[in-house]
Design goal:
heterodimer; A: about 800 residues; alpha+beta; Phenylalanyl-tRNA Synthetase, Chain B, domain 1; OB fold (Dihydrolipoamide Acetyltransferase, E2P); Phenylalanyl-tRNA Synthetase, Chain B, domain 3; B: about 350 residues; eight-stranded mixed β-sheet; two-stranded antiparallel ribbon
């Protein structure tokens, strides 16, 4: 909402400075978003004459113009307008000026090799009209060359952000009323209108009793014999200040009344109406051409203003071309109506239309302002354009029942924390236009009809504290007391996994929860995509089902920037359905490239699956899963290399899925065209990590170590090539409890080993609790190991 | 000069010429070997007159000890020389690069969520969560924003279905609804989480992070709200004084509603939070609307309280001098490395929130 101080002062008698007014506005909830001076920007637009227009040497459709702005200097300006010609008087914008329509700031630029100093403007570029086919053609302005085109715009405009509950402040009078409550000025009453209303409204108006009729009341005033014209300066100035373009006195008056009183009006060329006005619901597929020059196809049940033959306008939203006024218009019908917010909103949303009138009606204007609007509108029109106004004819329900609230004054202190006296409350409410009857401990309040937002106690409390000032609320220091744990188990895991991975050299990232379906489908081949109805772009069109999709996209971008050896991770939701809750938290990581690339001391090597396995396993251990409960198998997902990836489940192969890890499937690497194709990933599913029912300290075994000598024995087994060494290791560990540790230190296939077999070198640490193991003991356990392994796996000792 | 004195002076002359361990060994043999000069003197002891023997033996022992010490001293001297000689050939260039290690980082949003959780933990808030996909009811209707409410226009909503019943939550406030409908008052929660609006430019990202706060109990007033936010802002920005301004505003789910600005000034092109004559909007808040309480079956006659919503990304930007919101989500390694945090910097109340 735009206001100017002089306009405000038409409704508010005040000596307050502009700064004080701005300060007060913000303090009472009418947030000042900015103060602009129109002149600064617009005064740069000068009336100019094209002395000579010649064809651009390098472009058929462009011209190079010699432009004069009065002085001796001749400016070279490149122009694409077909009407640019010798002798034309138009408007010139110098370098540095900002074009009102595009907000683009001009610079001196070379256009197809010719330097252009500024530009010549079309009416649409200056927001003067929609005309954009050529540059402005000014007539009779020869004497004004060099002067600013926009005059008298030195007024400051204040831009206020009005919250959706404050429909009343979408008019300057409403803002003045709110300001008066702060005590900085006196709210001025509206002057009594003097209009001669001698004739009768010659156009019959009826509101049809259609289902959910959106029009509650329709007030009309017929004005006969006007001579429509350009608005007087005072009115044009106001219209320009609002950021609108002056059209004609009749139209400008309706806009003025809308912004002054928050009272939208509409005006019809009465001679273009076919007999009468009928307010009715639209029929399916009825068509209508609106004032924005667009044709709209209506759906059944929209509130339209029609005549005998066609739709004239969408009530409360936009008027139609067929009855629009022109400078030649002689007789008009002025409309001041009330439309229900729900109906307005529904229609505007379906047609994707937004207008100043719609904006106001959907927030709720004062239903009792119909006559007030007609009065001010008719008075101004007859004053400016002459003519004879008819008596007002009001169809429908003219007034709304007044709301009243019995307000107990103590409720203020109960909610706000500081008291307010009955007198102070009454004073504030009265100045806001409420009617109050004072009781002992309460106020009987009648809510003004322009405040549809006030319905109950809290609404009044807000009014009171807003005017009294939030700064008067005494703050109460919070108590430092904790009754419940801050984080639950899953939340602790969330935070811990971040630190856990970052401590392994992974860099945390946060990416959108949505992604590109083409990529997500590759990482989530097992499930169906979940699309977003209105994505911001086609490559962010689905909710991600895999945490790896975005990581892959970003890994590639980083590789393209020249960072190939990277480890990144994200923790966040992935989705498996479109219903609330069909999501889980996944920790995902990707790493690519080499270890020790170009290093003087360490040997450079490719990352491999055992690097990512270590990251996954170590993280799970840090998250509290006992290493012995991590069951690793090779059954993985389709997005991984089938031979170089694994799955980690809890306790057994059938246990809950804790993680996947492995090399990313070469097909995906190829599809995404990675520069460095050596890429590994993991996914950890936090929801499957079981919450222990006891604290770790409660389940920890007591400290127990053996003081006797530790011994070691090495074995080399020849075993079937497909036999999983993880299982072999487990078998050996379980043979005897004097086996403290089992290390695999070599795996070999090839020469000297039979085909289909491999050799595994194993180091076993042995230590007993009660004695130093003798040679005999060691031989015994060694034999046992060889026997058991042979029995369970068929492996033999390599000779 | 006695024999013993002679031996001593010969020894002294010889020991000074020793250069190698071999030299030392030959001296050792010359004096202490089988026929060494000292050994011989001991052998001769019996031939000395009994009355002089005692004194001689004493002198002899003194000299023996003296010479032995000198030999040992020389020996260690030689060993030191030997080590030093060896070390001369063992020099490496320690200015060569360190063995490679990868430094992991925590994303600023995660770090700031940890900071915030730590601050609110002190005053008894627990962390609650809710799903990213929400129903139209939880996201709007239950929050006193019915279908025809113009406030819905302020949220550019992502929808999952044509009928617009399922959407990506536009704020963390639906978690208020979920928490209250599934629990019993009192409530004291914060909700950090992802939120979504289909809006994308330099200052808006289609996804961002919000922190919701909710405190419902008997007789919680706006004074408590003010105190809580004042505490939070001071703790978060780690300053003693913060100028704070509550400005009336409107949110359908709170009444009265306010937006909170904090004071700041620009110093050396950087924002300094706390004092100064400029205002920065940091959050929205208010007293929970009785209609919301009714919707979640909490009796507004018995319970009341406040709620607030803070942009987490914005807080992170302000505290850590980050200019561009969109960079948060672009995974540029260089950016993450620059603005990310060491995993060991866990915000705590006793070690401090930040380094």
């Amino acid at each position: 909402m735009i206001i100017t101080i002089p306009w405000l002062k038409e409704h508010l008698q005040t000596k307050a400075s502009e700064a004080e007014i701005i300060d007060k506005l913000t303090n009472i909830g009418l947030e000042v978003e900015g103060v602009k001076v129109n002149s600064g920007e617009l005064s740069e637009f000068k009336i100019a004459k094209i002395l000579k227009a010649e064809k651009h040497p390098n472009a058929d459709k462009l011209k190079v113009c010699d432009v004069s702005i009065g002085g001796k200097e001749i400016l070279k300006v490149v122009c694409g307008a077909p009407n640019a010609r010798d002798g034309l008087i138009t408007i010139y914008a110098p370098p540095g000026a900002t074009i009102p329509k595009t907000k683009f700031q001009l610079k001196i630029a070379k256009i197809r090799g010719v330097e252009s100093k500024g530009m010549l403007c079309s009416p649409s570029e200056l927001n003067i009209s929609n005309e954009s086919d050529g540059i402005i053609e000014l007539k009779n302005k020869e004497s004004e060359i060099g002067k600013s085109y926009f005059k008298n715009k030195s007024e400051k405009v204040i831009d206020i952000s009005i919250t959706p509950n404050r429909a009343d402040c979408l008019g300057i009078r409403g803002i003045a009323r709110d300001l008066s409550a702060t005590g900085i000025g006196k709210f001025l009453p509206v002057k009594k209108k003097k209009i001669k209303q001698l004739i009768k409204n010659q156009i019959k108006i009826s509101i049809k009793k259609d289902p959910d009729q959106g029009c509650v009341a329709f007030g009309g005033c017929y004005i006969k014999g006007i001579s429509n014209r350009e608005s007087p300066e005072w009115l044009k100035k106001k219209i320009l200040a609002l950021g609108l373009r002056p059209i004609s006195a009749v139209v400008d008056v309706t806009n003025y009344v809308m912004f002054d009183l928050n009272r939208p009006l509409h005006v019809y060329d009465a001679d273009k109406i076919d007999k009468e006005i009928i307010v009715r619901n639209s029929k399916d597929n009825e068509e209508f051409e609106a004032l924005d020059n667009k044709k709209y196809k209506l759906k059944k049940g929209m509130c339209v203003i029609a005549d005998k033959s066609r739709v004239l306008g969408l009530g409360g939203i936009i008027g139609g071309l067929s009855t629009s006024t022109e400078l030649e218009t002689k007789n008009i019908l002025l409309e001041s109506a009330y439309f229900s917010p729900v109906s307005i909103r529904k229609t505007a949303r379906e047609l994707n239309l937004n207008t100043d009138a719609k904006y106001r009606f959907e927030r709720g204007i004062d239903p009792n302002s119909i006559i007030e609007g007609l009065e001010l509108g008719a008075e101004l029109i007859t004053k400016i354009c002459g003519g004879h106004a008819s008596k007002f004819s009001i169809t429908g329900k003219n007034s709304k029942k007044k709301k009243s609230i019995k307000f107990e004054i103590d409720k203020f202190e109960n909610l706000i924390g500081i008291p307010i006296s009955i007198n102070e409350a009454q004073k504030i409410l009265l100045s806001l236009g409420f009617k109050c009857k004072k009781g002992k401990k309460d106020l009987n309040i009648e809510v003004p009809t322009w405040r549809p937002d006030i319905n109950q106690d809290v609404d009044l409390i807000e009014e009171l504290i807003r005017i009294k000032g939030f700064k008067n609320i005494r703050l109460i220091e919070p108590k430092k007391k904790r009754e419940n744990e801050t984080l639950n188990y899953k939340q602790k895991l969330f935070h811990l996994s971040q630190r856990s991975l970052a401590s392994k050299g992974f860099i945390e990232t946060v990416t959108w929860s949505f992604t590109d379906s083409k990529i997500d489908n590759q990482f989530s081949q097992e499930t169906k995509e979940i699309s977003i109805l209105n994505p911001i772009s086609s490559d962010l069109n689905v909710l991600r089902r895999s945490i790896l999709s975005n990581l892959a996209i970003h890994l590639k971008r980083n590789q393209d920037r020249g960072y190939e050896d990277l480890s990144i991770f994200e923790i966040g939701p992935t989705f498996f359905g479109k219903n609330p809750g069909e999501q889980q938290i996944v920790v995902g990581g990707l790493k690519s490239g080499k270890i020790n690339r170009k290093n003087w001391i360490e040997k450079e090597r490719n990352l491999d699956v055992f690097d990512i396995k270590r990251d996954a396993i170590k993280t799970l251990i840090e998250l509290g899963v006992d290493e012995q409960n991590l069951f690793v198998s090779d059954s993985t997902k389709k997005c991984y290399h089938p031979g170089r990836s694994g799955s980690i489940t809890l306790k057994s192969e059938k246990g809950p899925q804790l993680a996947y890890f492995g090399e990313i499937h070469p097909a995906i690497i190829k599809n995404l065209d990675f520069k460095e194709p050596n890429i590994f990933g993991f996914e950890i599913f936090l929801k499957n990590i079981p919450e222990p029912n006891k604290k770790f300290r409660q389940t920890k075994k007591s400290f127990h170590v053996s003081d006797f000598q530790k011994s070691e024995r090495d074995f080399a087994f020849v075993i079937d090539k497909i036999f999983k060494i993880g299982i072999l290791e487990k078998i050996i560990r379980e043979i005897d409890n004097i086996i403290q540790d089992v290390k695999i230190f070599d795996v070999y296939e090839g020469e000297n080993i039979p085909k289909g077999k491999k050799s595994v070198a194993i180091n076993v640490s042995l230590q007993a609790d009660n004695k130093t193991l003798s040679e005999k003991d060691l031989d015994q356990i060694s034999n046992k190991i060889v026997e058991v392994v042979k029995e369970k796996t068929g492996a033999t000792i390599r000779s | 000069m006695s024999d013993l004195e002679k031996i001593s002076s010969i020894f002294n002359a010889k020991i000074d010429t020793v250069k190698t361990k071999e030299d030392l060994q030959s001296i050792k043999t010359e004096f202490f070997g089988k026929n060494g000069q000292i050994t011989l003197q001991f052998k001769n002891l019996s031939s000395i007159e009994p009355e002089k023997r005692k004194e001689f033996a004493s002198n002899l022992n003194k000299i023996k000890e003296d010479l032995t010490n000198q030999i040992e001293l020389k020996n260690s001297e030689l060993e030191n020389l030997e080590i030093n000689e060896k070390l001369k050939n063992e020099k490496v260039d320690v200015t060569l690069p360190v063995r490679p290690f990868q430094q992991g980082k925590i994303h600023p949003v995660s770090q700031v969520i940890d900071e915030i959780s730590s601050i609110f933990s002190e005053i008894g808030f627990s962390v609650a969560e809710g799903p990213d996909v929400e129903t139209d009811y939880n996201n709007f209707t239950a929050l006193n924003t019915p279908d025809d409410h113009p406030a819905r226009d302020m949220h550019d909503t992502f929808y999952l279905e044509k009928n617009k019943k399922l959407l990506l939550r536009t704020h963390t406030s639906p978690v208020q609804i979920r928490t209250m409908i599934n629990g019993k008052a009192p409530f004291k929660i914060i909700v950090p989480g992802r939120t979504y609006r289909c809006d994308s430019d330099q200052t808006h990202a289609p996804m961002f992070h919000q922190l919701e706060g909710l405190h419902i109990d008997k007789s919680i007033t706006m004074g408590h709200l003010k105190g809580c936010l004042d505490y939070f802002i001071k703790e978060f920005f780690e300053v003693k004084n913060v100028k704070m301004r509550f400005r009336p505003s409107h949110f359908p789910f709170t009444e009265p509603s306010a937006e909170v600005d904090i004071g700041y000034r620009i110093e050396n092109k950087k924002i300094v939070i706390g004092e100064g004559d400029k205002w920065l909007e940091v959050l929205g808040c208010g007293m929970v609307h009785p209609n919301v309480l009714k919707n979640v079956k909490v009796d507004p006659k018995k319970f009341q309280g406040y709620a607030f919503g803070i942009g987490i990304d914005r807080l992170a930007m302000l505290k850590y001098g980050i200019n561009d919101l969109r960079a948060f989500f672009e995974t540029d390694f260089r950016w993450l490395n620059h603005f990310g945090f060491d995993p060991l910097d866990v915000p705590t109340n006793y070690r401090g929130l930040s380094k």
